[in-house]
Specification:
The structure holds two protein chains of two kinds. By secondary structure, chain A is mostly beta strands. By secondary structure, chain B is mainly β. In chain B, 0% of the residues lie in helices and 58% in strands. In chain B, strand 4 and strand 5 form a beta hairpin. The chains are: A mainly beta, B mainly beta.
């Protein structure tokens, strides 16, 4: 089983649609969770951290279910500029040789069309 | 504010040639630094990380090496490039155990 698994997509949605991405992780010791966005041929950029209580940033909502080891990202009112690859990212756990290391999912491709 | 630089932005090298990629971070001290590679259509693979000057840990056996001669400088090297070394090389830093911030990357093509 991969450490972080995402549906690779692609997701093709019209402007204004709501789209949800899911991610599962295998390491129950993981403590930090993030969503990154990567545009074509660019570096990944942090979109948002994911907190246990769930958090929202404008049109973006992230949820975490520790019991199921499941993370989600919801994008409402999609814009053309939301087209990108979305990476689910999980830290490897506290202390020791895992300190500060992140594991990246393969990414989910989103295309928003007019 | 903190910024991270990488150069060169793109590089085309023949098989068997040496490699040196540089990463520098500004606006912070004693960051954890990381080198990743992203092969075409693939995810990010952690290659090396460093928690301080002269301290390098390798994640996977490979044809590459890393060095950290100064607090905010991280270098990725190879003595002889292989075709399989082609990819998008990303340097990242983190102030603590949280999120990582990436440089603009170096796109390497080995011919």
């Amino acid at each position: 089983r991969k450490e972080v698994e995402q549906d690779p997509g692609p997701f093709n949605v019209p402007e204004g649609a709501t789209v949800a991405f899911n991610c599962t992780y295998s390491n129950s010791a993981s403590q930090s969770f993030f969503w990154y966005r990567q545009d074509c041929r660019k570096e990944p950029k942090l979109l948002m951290s994911v907190y246990s209580s769930g958090n929202e940033d404008g049109r973006f909502t992230a949820q975490l279910n520790r019991a199921s080891q499941y993370i989600s990202l919801l994008i409402r009112d999609s814009k053309l500029s939301d087209s990108a690859t979305y990476l689910c990212v999980v830290n490897r756990g506290p202390g020791g040789t895992s300190y500060g290391k992140l594991t990246f999912g393969q990414g989910t491709i989103l295309t928003v069309h007019p | 504010s903190q910024t991270i630089h990488q150069w060169p932005a793109t590089l085309v090298q023949p098989v068997g040639s040496p490699l040196s990629l540089e990463c520098t971070v500004e606006g912070t001290s004693n960051p954890n630094l990381y080198w990743y590679r992203q092969a075409a259509g693939r995810g990010l693979q952690l290659l090396f990380y460093s928690v301080g000057i002269g301290q390098i840990s390798s994640e996977v056996p490979q044809n590459l090496s890393a060095s950290r001669p100064q607090d905010r400088q991280f270098i990725l090297s190879s003595k002889k490039l292989l075709l399989s070394d082609s990819g998008f090389y990303l340097c990242a830093w983190t102030p603590a155990r949280g999120e990582q911030f990436f440089g603009p990357g170096t796109r390497l093509t080995v011919l």
